[in-house]
Write a structure and sequence with these properties.
Radius of gyration of chain B: 46 Å
Number of domains of chain B: 3
Low-confidence stretches of chain B: 408-412
Strand order of the largest sheet of chain B: 2-1-5-4-3
CATH topology of the largest domain in chain B: Heat Shock Protein 90
Largest sheet of chain A: 5 strands, parallel
Radius of gyration of chain A: 14 Å
Number of helices of chain A: 4
Strand order of the largest sheet of chain A: 2-1-3-4-5
Order of helices and strands of chain B: HEEHHHEEEHHEHEEHEEHHEEH
Low-confidence stretches of chain A: 122-127
Shape of chain B: rod-shaped
CATH superfamily of the largest domain in chain B: Histidine kinase-like ATPase, C-terminal domain
Oligomer: heterodimer
Shape of chain A: globular
Number of domains of chain A: 1
CATH architecture of the largest domain in chain B: 2-Layer Sandwich
Mean pLDDT of chain B: 85
Structural class of chain A: alpha/beta
Distance between the termini of chain A: 10 Å
Chain lengths: 127, 412
Amino acid sequence: MTKLLLVDDDEELCAELAQVLEAEGFEVDMAFDGLRGVQCLQEKSYHLIILDLKLPRLDGYGVLKEIRKTAQPVKVLVLSGKPLGGPLFKEEKTLIMADAVMNKPFIVQELLQQIQALTLPVVEKNQ
Amino acid sequence: MALYFIITVIILSLSAVFWYIRERKKIQLEIQHSEQRFRTMADTAPVMTWVSQADGRFSFCNKAWASFTGQTMNDELENVWRKGIHPQDFSSCREAYLKALGLREKFTLDYRFKRADGVYRWVQDTGVPHFNSNGHFGGFIGSCVDITQGKLAEEFLKRDNEKMAQLVDERSKELVKTQKELKQYSRLADIGTLAATVAHELRNPLGVIHLAAYNLKREKSDLADNRHLANIEKKVWEGNQIIDNLLSYARIKIPNYENVNIVNILDECVISAQERFGEKGIIIEKKYLDGLDFIEADANQIREVFFNILNNACQACAPSGGRVELRARCSGQTVEVTIEDTGVGIAPEDIERVFEPFFTRKSKGTGLGLTICNELVHLHQGNIKISSRQGKGTTVTVLLPVRKNYDQTASG
C-alpha cells in the first residue's frame, strides 16, 4: 500500500483529506507541525509527503531541507497557501527541492491526479 | 519859432522812430538768438524734439527726430509723423493728439514709430502746451523717447508671468492629483496587506469545507445530488473567486515580459468564459482582424485583464441573456481589443468611478475587477477606455503596445 504523510497544522483539513485519500486506497499518517513531520520520517518510510509551508515549530521549507538531507527517496508535494508563479523569494527557492507544488485551495480531483502521478512509479515497483 | 518847433518835433519823431526800429531790431535779434539757442539746445539733445503750432501742424523737429525718421526738416513733417506711426496705433494716436489740442493740455502717447531702417520702435511721446506772453495758445513742444527695450522687457515679463502662472497652475493640479493618488495608494496598500492576510487565512477553512462536502458526497451516495451540498460547493467556489481577486490586487507587480500570442490569450479567455456564457444564454462572437501577432506582455496579467472584462460582460448580460462581441485588431504599434456587450450598462454618474477600487454596483463582487484591469493595462503602458449606455450595453476598449517601452512620440 502506498504510504502518505500529511504535514499540515490544520487538523480538520488533515482529517478530511486523509479520509479522501484513504478512500482512494492510500495509507495516511498525519503530522500537525514541522518537527513532528521530520520525526515521522525517521520512524517510518513514506512514498509521498504532502507538505504545507506555514507550520509551527519548523516550517515547510525547513522540513523540505531535512527530508533532502536523508537518503530516503521520498517524493514531496508542497501545498502552498501563497500563490506561486512569479519570481521566487529567497526562502521559496527551497521549493526547487520539491517534486510538485500546488496552490491552495485545490480541487480534490486535481489533487488526486497529482498524487497518483507522483506515486505511480513506486506503486508499479511494489507490484 | 514855429519852424523851430516843427523841426524839433520831426527830429524827436525821427529819433523815436529810430529808437523804435533799433529796439525792434534788438528784440528781433534777441528772438533770433533765443530761437537759435533753442535749436542748438534741441539739436544737441539726445531725445527727439518737435514743436507744433496752435493749429496743431508741426513747425519744427530736431536733428535726433530727423535722423530717427531719416527725413530732413524740409520734408512735410506731418506726413512723416503720420506715415511713421504704426497703422495699428495711428487712429488712437491721432484721436489723443486732437483731444489734447482741443483741451490744450499735456499728453503722453506710447506708439510704434518707424525708424529710418524700416524697423518699428516703441516710443513715448510727451507734448506740453506752450502759451505766448499774451496767454494765447501757441501749440505744443514735444519730446519723444525710444522705449522699445522697456516695452520688450515689459512684454517678456508679462509673458513670463503668464507662463509662470500657467506652470504654477499645472503643477498645483498635478500635485493635487498626486496627493489624491498617494492617499488612495496608501489606503490601498494598507487594505491590500490586510486583504492578503485575511484571504490567505480564509483559504484553509474554505478548503476544509470543500473537502468535507466532497467526503459527505462520497460517503453517502444519496447526497450526490443534494441541493444544500451543491450550494455549499458553489459558495466555496465564489468565496475563492473573491479571495483570488483580492490577492491579485494585493500582488500587482511589474509585468514579467515575454513574447505572447495575443490571439491565443484571447481564445483561452473566451474558452474559459464560454461555459458560464452558455449557461446564461449569452452568445459570444469573436472578430479577429489580420495583423494580430505576438506582443511583449505578461501573459498572466493580460489573461487576467480579459478574463475580468469578459466576466463583467457576462454579469451585465446575465439577467436575460445577450450578446458579447470581442474584436481585436492591430494598428501600427498598438493592439486594440474591444469587448462590447448588450448588458444592463453603467449609469452615467457611475462611469467615472468604475476604475476606483472597491466601487461596485453588483451585489456580489469586490469592486476590484476593473481596478486591477486598469492597473495592469497601465503597467503595460497601455490604455483602457470604457463607454456605456444604460440599458443598451457597455464597450470596453483595451490598447496595448506591441513592444514594451514603445515611445509613441519618438517614432512619429
